[in-house]
Amino acid sequence: MAGQKAFFYNQNYCVGCHSCETACMVKNQVDVGVSWRTLDSFEVEINGRMVERYLSHSCMHCAEPQCASVCPTKAYTKREDGLVIQDHDKCVGCGYCIYACPYQAPKMNPHTKKVEKCTGCYDLIDAGEQPMCVRGCPVQVLKIEDIDKLDAEGAVKEAIGFQAFATNPSMRFVKMKQ
């Protein structure tokens, strides 16, 4: 059985180029105005200096996905590797999943009037490759790994701009340098 996959992100070295967002949009043919992966920026004080730090995030593929628990059409399933997949054909656009997700990962597409979200590029993972957002990062600060391995190696569950909620998100970070 495959272990729970988690996105692993190094905020210390992200340059804020948005390549992860762009790679995701191109690979998945995401409509303009909808973003499955987002890059936020934060100004924080480190060693007496104000510096900019970034947070690249998408669906957290939570251990306890609230999107799946509230969906009236059962459009969400959780794979053995922990990726939370939405069957777009089953979506009726009610938006319950958007409101249930503490990370607002599911997005309403204004053109289709249906919800959509990050798939973790399960097709690439099934082929033994990394997701497109990971492949698109020029400084290699984003990857996907087995969550148990990341936890054993000292990855942390929270970072600047990110708080872990009860849904148990499958996102880990390199400890922030001070």
UniProtKB/TrEMBL annotation:
Residue ranges constituting the 4Fe-4S ferredoxin-type domain according to the UniProt record: 5-35, 50-81, 82-111
MF GO annotations: 4 iron, 4 sulfur cluster binding; metal ion binding
Record-linked PANTHER family: PROTEIN NRFC
Keyword Lipid metabolism: no
Species of provenance: Desulfitobacterium hafniense (strain Y51)
Keywords from the named record: 4Fe-4S, Iron, Iron-sulfur, Metal-binding
Keyword Phosphoprotein part of the UniProt annotation: no
Protein name (Swiss-Prot/TrEMBL): Putative oxidoreductase iron-sulfur subunit
